[in-house]
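URGENT: need a sanity check before tomorrow's submission.

F., can you look over the Ufm1-specific protease 2 record below? I want to be sure the sequence and structure line up before it goes out.
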Amino acid sequence: MADEDRFHIHRQVLEILKSPKSNVDTTNKGFLLECGRQNVITCVGCSSLDSSKLHKQVEDVRQYLPGGIDICGLFYSVNSKPDIESISKELKRLQVCQLLSNSESIVVCVYQDNVTSISNGDFYVCNKEYDIKQAVVTITDEDFLDNKQLLRTRCLLPLSIDIGQIDSWKTSFASEIETVYESVESDSSFFHLSNSNVIISVDRVSGIAENLDCNSLQDYIDDDDGFTKKKTRKSTKHSKMEYLDFSLYFQISGEKACQQIPSCSPVISQKQDDFRTVDMTVELDVLSVVSQDTPVVELAKVMSASVCNQLNAVRTCVLRHSTDHTFYTPEAFHFRPHKRQIIYTIMYPRNVTDEKLVERRRELHNMLCLPLDKPVFKRSNKVMFPEDITRYGYLINPHIGLPASGVKDGTVALVDGLYSYHHYMQDRFDDNKWGCAYRSLQTLVSWFRLQGYTDKPIPSHKEIQQALVDVGDKEPKFVGSRQWIGSMEVSYCLDHLIGITSKIMFVNNGGEMSTKGRELVNHFQTQGTPIMIGGGVLAHTILGVDFNDVTGDLKFLILDPHYTGSEDLKVIQDKGWCGWKGLDFWDKTAHYNLCMPQKPKAI
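Structure tokens as predicted:
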């Protein structure tokens, strides 16, 4: 750590460490999480811990992390200004260096409870002899995943649990996992890059030169028709979560497989009895994060460690949720809490609903220093990979990639999270010239679905109309009609269908929209929900604003539901169906109502 540039920390981590404890039910002690490469450690996250369970929590935290991310140190707060001797004494008491033995030194952040920020002087480095010295850190705002390569490893893992002895099934299952664990760590396991001839194991590489780096692997992937895919430019931080796809295999014949067999004469015994087993097939779905310049020969070690972490998660999930008579198969879900620099993988028991996992999610929020007022680990919050987006059927966040609004020195406040674009003529339903507010409502509901606030489906036009009849706003003959609805009706439907309340902003005419900049900025900064606006015979969705509170310059990011074409993002952006609009977009003779949904507190 002598070089000043060897330890970097993301600014977001500093903000988390000093975040108000009223929003995160954590202790003032935890782990620092990093991704190291070429002697440079970048701290990209943190997790809280109970020092009385320190040894157990090292394993607990690692099972949620992708390969390539690990614990690099510790943070804790003190009442008075810390000194080197007291830090060394505390670390010895916790036996931290023995726990984190995979590193020559660990990073320690020690800060006072009564200060409002964390500075360079709060960081220290400790070696295995507990010699402490002050560290020089570099604070970064760069999106960590921007220049990284995501690896995804999948395989089907058949497991058999002996339940003949009711009180020993846990031992049987743990033994089964341990056997797989040993196979993964051995040189009889290997990773195959999908649609390629590339095979990587811990001791060899075939199908590609060993001296090449991870960034070269894309050149060796073939399409189904046999043509090599052209290498694409690295995705931006808001684009699809692209990855290199690997399958895990185990060699069951040949010299390497035989090495797993004990070198002694076999003794075979037979016992006739009734045996009862539970068989389950677990789909391992493992992520690893590496630098693009990582040598190919190093990938197997990273992916193997990541698979072993998930095996621990499989064991934890089964032991936690299964009983002597009821067994649940674990399923892997990947989550990237908004703006966090780490993708976490959580194993949930299949067929157990989100409603029954509230306390489990609360534990995860506390451990990973996440606020308790917003769901991030519900199944609907899972990361959407390219194939998930394709299957979803609607465009997700079509505003991503738009040029800047042009407001000089403005404050940009945008929708927070994912939503889908709903517009005229979708779903094989002709609502041209009358269904714009219905489509805007569908976009609003999609936001609450994709953020995990509801699992209710996006309502059809008929279901929206029936909801308005059910709440007494419309007569029964309204169902099946082609009548317009407005902002008030949208708010009634949000409340009735998914339990979401809304604020209504009244604007006398389009010219008055120029006075609403501060209120709209505040809405997107505090609520982050898309807004439905209705005026005259038109309805639109506001996704954000760019506002200069000195000059009053104001632009609106508009999603237009009047589009009737196909899901062509280029057309939608180039033709302004999703884009920045000025004050002249609003009709100065029309009265406008804005339906501003309020996000509930949930977990």
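My own read: The domain at 4-142 is CATH 3.40.140.10 (Cytidine Deaminase; domain 2). Residues 121 and 595 are 47 Å apart (CA to CA). If you see anything odd, call me.
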